[in-house]
Amino acid sequence: MADYPTDTILALDFGASNTRAALFDVVEGAYRFVACGEAPSTAKPPFLDISEGMRHAIFELQAVTGRIVMDQSAQLILPATPDGTGIDIVVVTSSVGPAARALLVGLLPEVSVESARRLAGSSYITVKDTLSLGDRRKEEKQFDAVVNADPELIFIAGGTDNGSREALLKLLDTVSLACLLLPSGQSPRVLYTGNPLLKDKVTELFTNIGPVYTAANIQPELGEEVFGPARVELAKIMSELRLGQIGGLQALTQINGGGLQPTAQAEGQIVRYFNRATNSSGGVLGVNVGSAATSIAAAFQGELHLSVRADLGVGMNSGNLLTETTVDQFTRWLPFETSATAVREFILNKSVYPHTVPAEVADLHWEYALAREVLRAALRTAQARWPAQVLGPRSDLLPRMDLILGSGAVLSHAPRPALAAMLLLDALQPIGVTNLLLDPHHLLAALGALTHTHPMTVVQALDGALLSLGMVFSVVGDARLGNVVCTAKLVSDTGGETTVDVKFGSLEVLPLPLGQDGKLTLKPRAGVDVGFGPGRGKTVSVSGGAVGLIVDARGRPLVFPKAADKRQALVADWIRKMGGSV
Amino acid sequence: MPYIPDSSHVTLLATLRRDRMLPASGEVIPQAGQHVEAVDVVARAVIPDEYRILDLAKHLEVSKDKTAAFMVKQNGDSVKKGELLAVRKTLMGLVVLPVASPVDGVLVDSGKGKALVAAVSKPFELRAGMPGNVINRVEGRGVTIEATGALLQGVWGNGKDHYSVMRVLGNGPRNPLVADQLEMNLRGVILAVGTLQDDSAFKQIAEVGIAGLIVGSLKSDLLPALRKWSIPVMVTDGFGAQGFSAPAYTLLASNTGRELWLNAPGLNHYTGARPEVIIPLPTPGQAPGVPAEGRPLDVGQRVRVLRGNALGQVGTVAALSDRTIALPSGARAKVALVKFDEANLPPASVPFANLEILE
Q: Which of A213, B116, B174, B298 has minimal CB crowding within 10 Å?
């Protein structure tokens, strides 16, 4: 018997637009990603069942690998046989389905309600209303608010340990009464994470209304947040909601023992894993830009901060961007003139035809302008929830990130790796030295779901699963557009040498392909910071990537010329520098 | 491996079944097998306009657990404004503590020392929407109606519905509505027009008093106002100036002057709800089939282009690629060779994802 696990793993991820099936197996003594298949998701009508999309994705996987994992009657073959047919383990992650409607109830709006909002914001949840002692509405209006919210989840977070009790119970009386009359007629799930002395009373109050879940107080002391236990219960609730909503999921999870992880949570596990593994003072950021949702997972000093915008994506939920950004913010990414009406029409058409793809070059620029603004809006939401100590003195800038992981179809299906890199750079605008990684096969969720049960698989399979786009050195400092702010000299291990005078406002790519290493010497002008302190230069070891080495001297935040023609010319120059055409 | 794209129905004649269900439990009126007209009420329910909460314990001057003994009305009873819900007499009847209903409605609950009264001004009535036969009756919820007719689906609706005569204005699928076309004899008519771009025409529509609007495409600036309109609005193809696809226009033009049901809920990708037009048509012979759903893309199918240079064009699939090819944008995708209906357009390779089947 082998002294290491030899299970064949099939990872299934169900997104709003796409379903992916990925195969992991032991190759030469270590787990490796073998291949993946992809097909349109079929959770929507006319199918209303994920199984059809799953079968198509698995057909594609079988066609690529020649491995049979499904029998003639489209049933998964479990366990694997010695001849290599079938699989041993099925891992299921999902982001498909409408955002769950939630009502938040707490004592103080800036304290317990805000903590509950932060935690709810880490899942595929839309907060429809909040009730607290700060609510000045009459009791009747509060009652109507509960009925109108028609919540699937009532999230109660009230009072510190041994704190106030009566005030919260009075509020919950109104909520429980209103729950008798919810328009959907469905029983909401109730999550109580407040003062533990009220746990039994709250359970009694809601026991006839819906399933009640309790977890440790998310704010046991004023200013202290403990999310871990509540996050576990929340994931359980979301999983149950999805199993009831999405056709085919229940049957699938019976095969794998009931395991279903929300995609964002699973990806968050990997982001935290990377952060703990690198053990650096910088953070690790993972972004997933999807059709219906956009998630931002940030880990600092081993702590994960997860933010999910379940209402914002580049497909079916792109229309919500119109209330989050201005036309000028959108058009600044385009290398050509356009009108405000055209911008609105592009976004609205994308929301009604979410699966369409850009076939022409100009259309590609529209698509990625949309993705940039969606990601920027999601980042704003996430950053507002990060603790002040990680934001540092410049809260308008992204904290220093050692690593940025990009996921989601708009990134993984980018026509060129440089376009994915540019989307990440433009939307996130990292500072200092950052490694950019792409998840081209959409494996982060699967690997995240395996971190607890198969940690060795994750460690081994990560090797080769992700694509290194390259290292980025971002320039922070003020200068006039066109002035030289830094000199970059790259000496590759193969002997090649490249020297560039980097001008403010420019984006430079130094050639260092994947698999090659080298030394990069950066000499910034006085006052300019390239990651080593203002005016400080350094020679560092560097590794190549699919794009190369990038020196981003466009300023932080990005500086655009005010005149439209000059701005368009500059944006066109950036696109060309990254190998694109306009 | 088949690719199953989205589809839109532009169906000249089919058997159509539509559920008409109440949002809350209520009374269902017709029996299974019964014929209903579009305006017939098929179900009604009491749906409160608002709720009022009365502190019984406080008004009756007793503890919360003692209020039940003083209730005059029971849960579920109808109440009139000013009618007594509860009363307590003390000091041998010398002191009377009454609690009256503040609204007409229903006493929903009177536990825990409080009374919850649902204010109901008039019952909610659900109409059939289209003429047809009731083929299924769900007690307390509603009915399924079956009819034969034409079906046209859209991509945007403002949540309203109406049944009335439809007239097509203009003489082409891309014809923009101009204010001069709007005459007072269009009052009460559901109007169909290629595209709405002009602000003055938009204002004129409101003055004429039409009963509904079907447009191929729309200037997006008009959306906020259209959302607030009390009449139904449906966009069939999208946002911009592209107008109707030729088959959609042909369907509407060939039925101008007929009555139709314009049912315009918002598009919901998860439930499949989408705006639609149903034009009831008689079928003297054998009933036609129900519209096909979920068919894979194939050679010979009628398709419409959803994005790119040929946006809105309709044609026939001449060939399908079995592997991905590089598009001008650099993206890779499987493509279909589409021969367009418009004779002056050369055939083009269109990504599968940018096509929808016209059923």
A: B298
